Known about the structure:
alpha+beta, tt1808, chain A, six-stranded mixed β-sheet, four-stranded mixed β-sheet, 5 helices, 27% strand, globular, disordered N terminus, endonuclease activity, nuclease, endonuclease, Endonuclease, Uma2 family (Restriction endonuclease fold)
Amino acid sequence: MAEAASKLDRRYTYRDYLGWQDGERWELIGGAVYNMTPVPSRQHQALVGNIFAALHAYFRDKTCEVYVAPFDVRLPAAGEDPDAASNVVQPDIVVVCDKAKLDDRGCLGAPDLVVEVVSPDTAKKDMAEKLDLYERAGVKEYWIVHPGDQTVMVFCLGDDGKYGRHKMYEKGETLAAAIFPELVIELAEIFA
């Protein structure tokens, strides 16, 4: 526990992150450390599984690949050495269409689509820090899934490189992905 507490005291890089063998899961955002070790709720895992299944089925015969956490996404700033990256996250689900971004460590660069299922412990980070990070990194589409409200907020990167106003989908609606026009998901099935 003392080692975990010491991780909160300074800024870290991906190089530091690779050396942590403590059995805990961590994320780095701007070099700040976030512990991902607590076990997600059953509801969280069910939603992640349902969304992953829908995305996996859609992308089965396509060039994009779908991954579920734990899966490292390294988002170095422009010109930053990837091993010195201060942003390493483990989104619940990612879709990567540029296979050159994939390596044995995960994804280096912005995925095309990121899905985060919020929990009381992660809501602020997912809706503020990660939203800003994904926008800066160039993630084309970001879904924030709210289990309690049974809603999905969809943010799409505009031509100006910014997320405009989000689109909100509710349980009884059909979510249509902006960057994959043929991808539609019945949210009643996701939240069932």
